[in-house]
Structure formats: structure tokens, C-alpha cells
Amino acid sequence: MNPKIAIVAGSSRTGSFNRRLAMELARHLAKTDVKLTILDLADYPLPIYDADTEDENGVPNHALDLARQIARQDGLLLVSPEYNSSVPPLLKNAVDWVSRVRRIDDRPVLPFKGLVVGLASISTGQNGGMKGLEAWRPILRSVGAEVITAQCSVPRAREAFDEEGALADDRIRMRFDALLESLVDVSRSLARTMAQD
Question: Per the database record, which ranges form the NADPH-dependent FMN reductase-like domain (predicted)?
């Protein structure tokens, strides 16, 4: 079975290194047998999560649409910036809203439950956003996702890409190959299990 995998960058900033990395990883995944979806958070603008807002107005339509997309996937690759050694607010807010969705198209659903998630980052600093990735793990587990062990971060973002937009460092490319292979394999296994249930 061909696994369904989505990629989402945790930044909508023009010129974002994380968006560039997400597009490069999408290019590699497109060469495999996965059914690839690219999710751009700029297409799903959301207010800051507030329980009063949810009580008064319900879950916003953009959160429902994003939850619908995520619920269709076997795997998700989050390419996340690091903000002050933690997660970026744009992506965290999207996860918070999507985690509030309980029904889609009159069917009960928990969008993240059992979803296989891989983590990647890039940063201008020396650690490549690694602290932010570690901060994501308990958050994603708390909403029911299966976060794979393999992850990859790219330091010194301004030097990370060659003239064609590919990752310039062979060792980093090999680590990303291992991350993508693990994400595809575990997602395929989950998709097969779900198909048999």
C-alpha cells in the first residue's frame, strides 16, 4: 500500500529556510511511491487558540479543513523552526486548534491519533533547531501521534543549500534520507494495519 504523507513547514515567512527545506524534502519524497500532500499554513489562517473563542464560535472552518487533511494521512513530516529553544507559535497554534476537532463530516475523529510524525528543522545557529524538535515530542504524543525516533536538523542555514536548492552537505543528506526512509516505512506499516482492520 502506498502511504499518504503530508509535509508542513512551521513558518509562512517569505524566504523561510524551513519552507525551503520542506520543499527539498518534498522533492525527495515525490520520487517514492508515497501519496504526497504539501500543507501550507498560510492557507489555513487561524486566531490564537482561546477556549472562550471555541465556546462562543466553535472550531474555525480553517481548523476543520486542516484537520480533514491531516486525518487523511498515514504520516506527517513537520519541518519546524525553533523559537527561543522551543516550538514556533504559528505551528503550535495550528496543532492546538486541530487537536480540538472531534467530528469531521459527521464522523467522530481524532486527527492526530495514530498519525506517524517525523521531525526536521533548519536554523542559522549551530544546533539547527534541535531544541525545538525535542519540545515537539511531548506535545505530539499528548495528542495521540506516533513520533518516530529519527529526526534531522540542519545548522548554518545560510550555507545549507547549493545553487540548485539541494542540501549541500552529504552527511546531512544521508541523515535526511534515513529520516524519510523511516517515516515512509512506519507510515506504510500503519497504513497496512489500518487497511486490515
Answer: 3-157
First to last CA, the chain: 14
**How far apart, in Å, are the Cα atoms of 122 and each of 26, 70, 119, 129?**
15, 23, 11, 6
pLDDT bin (cut points 50, 70, 90) of residue 193 is low
pLDDT digits (tens, 9 = 90+) for 118-164: 999 999 999 999 999 999 999 999 999 999 999 999 999 999 999 98
Number of structural domains the chain divides into: 1
Interatomic CA distance for residues 103 and 196, integer angstroms:
23
Condensed to tens digits (0 to 9), the pLDDT of residues 33-44 reads 999 999 999 999
SS3 state at 2: coil
Q: What residues pair up with 107 in beta bridges, in sequence order?
A: 104
Say what the pTM is.
0.93
Distance CA 124, CA 45 (A): 26
Buried b / exposed e across 103-123, counting CB within 10 Å, b at 16+?
ebeeeeeebbeebbbbbbbbb
Supply the range of the domain harboring residue 161: 4-196
Q: In what side-by-side order are the strands of the sheet with 116-122?
A: 35-39, 4-9, 75-79, 116-122, 146-154
Helix, strand, coil % over all residues of the chain, rounded to 5? 45, 20, 35
Cell 521531525 found at? 119
Round the CA-based radius of gyration of the chain to a whole number and report it: 16
